[in-house]
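Can you give me the bound-state structure? Components:
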Amino acid sequence: MPWVTRGLRNGVLTTRYPKRPDGYGANWRGAVSVRPDGAGRPPVTDGLCPTGAIRPGATPHGLAGGPVGGPVLDRGKCILCGRCVAERPDVFSFDSSAEVAALTRPGLVVPPTEESEAALATVRAELSRRVAALRKSVHVRHVDAGSDGSEEWEVAALLGPVYDVHRLGVFFTASPRHADLLLVTGAGCTGMAGPLLTTYEAMPDPRVVMAVGTDAISGGIVRSGDTGPGGVGEIVPVDVWVPGSPPSPFSVLHGILLAVGLLPAKRGPA
Amino acid sequence: MTNHVPGTGQARAAGDDLWDETEVGVGEFAATVISGLGGTAERPTGGRFAGLFGSARTDGTVWLRAAIARLGRLEVVSCLVPPAPPGGQAAYRGLTPDVPGAAWYERELADMFGLVPEGHQRVDPLVLPRDAQTPPPRPGSAGPRAEIVPDESALPAHVTGEGVFTLPYGPVRSGVFESVQYLIETPGEDIPHVRARVYHKHRGTERRFEGMTPADGVLLAERVEGVASVAHALAFCQALEAVASGPGGGERAMVPEGALLVRALHAELERIANHLDSVLRHTEAAGQAVANARLGWHKERVMRLRSQLCGHRFGRGVVVPGGVSGPPALAPSAALDELMGLDADVVSDTRHLMATSSFVDRLRGTGVITPEVAARRGALGPVGRASGLEEDLRTYRPYAAYGLIEVPEHRYRGSGDALARQLVRLEEVRGSFQICRSALESLAGRPANGPWAVAVAPADGTAWGWAEAPQGELLYMVETEGGRLRRVKPRSASFHNLSLFPEAFGGDIFTDFAFIEASFGLSIAGVAG
Ligand code: SF4
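Here's the bound-state model for the whole set.
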């Protein structure tokens, strides 16, 4: 059988996302949330989380949706190890969704604060002005700034038949001069700071930067090694934050669409 | 020989069947290692050099250990390197002149500990070039973690001269790749030479392990080389389990059989995914678009099957010290159905690919590692097996469930080129499907309530763990103290095999590069540390 007929044998493999929800993406264990019903439950102990993503009893007064004095969880530091959910299922739960990207760093903290909600509106308006020119197609340049290697697999999957981002007008490019979107993986170790910055500087304006993965956001569990990686936000200005260790291909795709304003209007609270 | 806990004078019985350690003076270290590698009347085949491992102490000394791999066990030679004399540097007699495979290890030791291997030429920085004022991180010494900026001026200059040029490729490369820099040097008429620079993405993971609990350490081990998370978690946990403290002192933890099966299942799915990734990179380089799409789809199915079994596409969170975190989340019968369909599709498509002459011709004769080079340098995993070496830890030093279920024999005998490496991987993929099937069938009859793990409290001292990662032999040296990690040194097959990479270039570097790189199937994260 020639290759060309093999290519057709299994019909359409490609996801319809974001036009239609995708079952696999929708069931993805993409984030941890803090349960709102906190009355009377024992406090969360310090040191529960291996990456320090949880601050027990940190919620101040007046938080939207959060109990007073309850724990605060920073998804930008969470590596989704599941320990908090296993040990304190009364407080923490997994969210079933791959749509976990945020447009601000505080936007990754749950429960959300009122200030972070207000700041978001300004950020969203500014970003949509910047990306107005990109609606037809977007060119992406990837840089690994100290990843564990898994993020590259999930980003590369977007080019495969299942995610096929070309159908959405998303193209990967080798040249930073033709790139609109800089997709950065890895913890931002000092040896990659120079090459990353050079790539960023070679990109024309307007440009958008995405930090892909918990390591890229905060250094994750490898932060404070000898080359001090604490996230790529210390090196380049980040617009879109995609948590996950690594984030699933759907999460990366959601981040790209959020960055360039290509998500269908009713979808994607960010 | 006893299994010695260096620095404590305490001999330990557990782990004795897995490794033994001989402590010698620093002056005899090199000679002892070299004689250990040679054949003896008792062990006619000799051993394979498997790495040099350092661990610093607060008093300025460094424990230096050489690992020698043999059938069935690991032999360790250790010595204590005294602190640097005033105004001088801490030194030992280098191994590289006699053991060519030691070169990268000696460069790494110089970067990380400031140790000088005497008796051979200047040691170029590898993972962490430092300026003269910056002290080495000295893992194991529990010193403060300082942020180190790699200093390029500490590296040797590019080759220059008439008709000679150096073409740097990377660290930021075209396509979605990990960062690494290759220097392609063309010294006049000679065959161009390739050098790899890996320090850009040095993250300092080794220092990060220090002081962690074993439960946190496994999460970091999974991220040392993320595409081989299961193998890293396994090697790390098996080291802790080998010398768990039991009622009678140091004892091997009795990991439940169900957990051993789950471990093997995930390790083999990881192998299938990695091998398919390597094949994919070949089809991409060769412009085989349909094959690329088909295999990309199959790889995604493997990743989805892994996530259905455990909630994670890379199998993270499955292996924990003492066992696994729980039973598969997908019923073994449903997993078997998916697995069999996938197996059939992979076999059909790869068979067709290997009958596509325009593809096969690109690989034949490309990037040859001769059997002599492979044996002399101790090439690991599929790279070694494609050049005639037989070693596979699943049968040479069995772990997980590989003693319980059959590991299919490697029948293919390669000629050391990219085609041979591809054929070795395809044979291994079929073997892995078979192991997954046996593991799932054996798991099907078991109650979901376990047991899936036993409690493990590591005894103080040094332990070794290993796994046959998709890239080849993975070793972990784990030192524990008071139930916490004092020093963890992972040695990935990627590190060892990348040092052989330049040996594979004989012909046209520029057109062969992508194929040779794909056929090595390495991860830079596992090299840079
Ligand atoms: S899932 Fe793990 S890393 Fe994330 S918040 Fe919970 S304990 Fe921390």
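A couple of observations. Chain B touches chain A through 62 residues (CB under 8 Å). The mean pLDDT of chain B is 91.
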